[in-house]
Amino acid sequence: MIGLKTRLSLLVIILFAIIYALGTLLMYYGFGISGFLPQIIFAFGMMFFQYLIGPKLVEMMMRVRYVSKTEYPWLYEMVEDLSRKASLPMPRICISDVQVPNAFAFGRGRRDGRVCLTRGIMNLLDREELRAVLGHELSHLKNNDVLFITLLSVIPMVMYGIFRYFMWFGYGYRRDSRDSGGNYTALIGIAAFLFYFVSNLLILYASRIREFYADKGAVELGNKPSSLATALYKLVYGAAKSPKEEVAQVEGIKAFFLNDVSKARSEIEEVSALDMDRSGTIDAFELRRLREQRIHLRVTDKLMELLSTHPNMLKRIKQLSQYSNS
Q1: Taking a C-beta distance cutoff of 8 angstroms, is the pair 142, 221 a contact?
Q2: How far is CA 274 from the centre of its chain?
Q3: Which of 133, 126, 283, 293 is nearest to 215 (CA)?
Q4: 55-69 tens-digit pLDDT
Q5: For 190, phi and psi rounded to 5 degrees?
Q6: What b/e string do you get for 208-220 counting C-beta neighbours within 10 Å, with b at 16 or more?
Q7: What are the distances in angstroms from CA 246 to CA 56, 85, 130, 131, 133?
C-alpha cells in the first residue's frame, strides 16, 4: 500500500505541473513572456507566499489565542506526553473562541507546530476523548501533512481568481477595445477553470486520506479507538446542533478540522445509529459489532464524499473499528 508521504509527494508534483502549465499560458499570452525560469519562479513564488502567510491567516480566521502552561496545566501535560510518544517537538497550544466544537493543527512544519482547540470542543468532550483528538492532531504534525495542505490549498483559490479575471475583467476589456488577444484571454480563463476543478478534487482527495492516517496515528499513540470514535460522534452531533451562521463562519478552514462541519446535519442520523444503547458514546462493544458488519454507501453519499474535505463518517468509524482488539 502506498504510504501517505508518497501519495502527498505525487500530488505536489501534479499540482506543481498544473501551476507550471497555467503559468506558461498566463505569461506567454497574457504578458508575452516566455522561457522556463519565469514560470518556475511564478510557481515557487505562489507556494512560498502561502507558506509565509498560511499560519497567520488561520490565526485571524479562527480568532486564536495562545495559552500558557499555568492557564491549562492539564492540557499541557496531555500534549507533552503525546508529543514525547510521537517523537515531536512540543507544539504551541492555543484556544479558539469559536463555539463550533472542533480541533485542528497548523503551522509551517514539525518545529513550528501549533495545536488548537475551540471553546466548543472543550465543553463537549471528556479528557480521554480530548486526548484521542489531540493524538489525531499531533499525528497530522508528525506526518507533515499540515504543511502539504497549507501549501497546496492556495492553488485552487489562485486558479479561480485567474479564471474570474480573464473571463470577466481581462476578456471583457480586450473585447471592448477590439484587441485580437481576446481569444487568448478566453483560453487562459477556460484553462484556469479546468485546472481549478482538477486541483480542487486532488486537494480534497489529499485531505481525506490524511484523516485516515491521523486516526490510525492517534491509536498508535495509545488512545482507544472507541475514544476517538466517540469524539467524532460527538463532534458531528455538536456541529449539527450549532447555528448555521456559526458553521458558515468556519467553513473556509474546515479542511483543517477533525470532521466536515458542513456535512454534520446529513451525517448525524447514520452515525447515531451506531450508538445502540443511546449512551451518547460509541463503546468497544459497538465498535466490535460495526467491525463485523458491511456498510453500504448510497451513490449520493459517495458523490458527497468525492467533493468533501473529509471521508464519509460511517466509513471512517468503520476503519477505526479495525484497530480495536477488545
Answers
A1: no
A2: 25
A3: 133
A4: 888 888 899 999 999
A5: -65, -45
A6: bbbbbbbbbbbbe
A7: 21, 35, 22, 25, 21
CA pair distance 175, 238, nearest whole angstrom: 51
Looking at this protein, which amino acid is placed at residue 272?
A: S
Q: Tell me if residue 102 falls in helix, strand or coil.
A: coil
Residues lower than pLDDT 70 in the chain? 1-5, 8-9, 12, 15-16, 18-44, 46-47, 50, 150-155, 157-161, 166-184, 325-326
Residue in the block written with cell 485542528: 104
Residue with cell 503551522: 107
Task: Specify which residues 157 forms β-bridges with.
Answer: none
pLDDT tens string 268-306 = 988 999 999 999 999 999 999 999 998 888 888 888 888
Record the cell numbers describing residue 74, joined without a space. Answer: 492539564
Give the catalytic positions in this structure. Answer: 137
As a whole number of angstroms, the distance between CA 87 and CA 108 comes to 17
| Helices marked H in 221-298 | 225-241, 244-250, 264-272, 284-291
Q: What is the pLDDT of residue 173?
A: 46
**Residue 308: DSSP 8-state:** S
DSSP state of 67: -
How many Cβ atoms sit within 10 Å of the Cβ of residue 136?
27
Collapsed DSSP state (helix, strand, coil) of residue 66: strand
Residue 280, Ramachandran bin (φ over 0: left; ψ between -120 and 50: alpha; else beta): left
Buried b (16+ CB within 10 A) or exposed e, 151-164: bbbbbbebbbebbe
- What gap in Å lies between CA 129 and CA 225, rounded to an integer? 10
Three-state DSSP class for residue 153: coil
Cell numbers 507566499 correspond to 49
d(CA 157, CA 189): 14
* 309: phi then psi, degrees, rounded to nearest 5: -80, -15
Place of cell 486537494: 203
Strands 92-96, 114-118: pairing is parallel
What distance in Å separates the CA atoms of residue 163 and residue 157, rounded to the nearest whole number?
Answer: 10
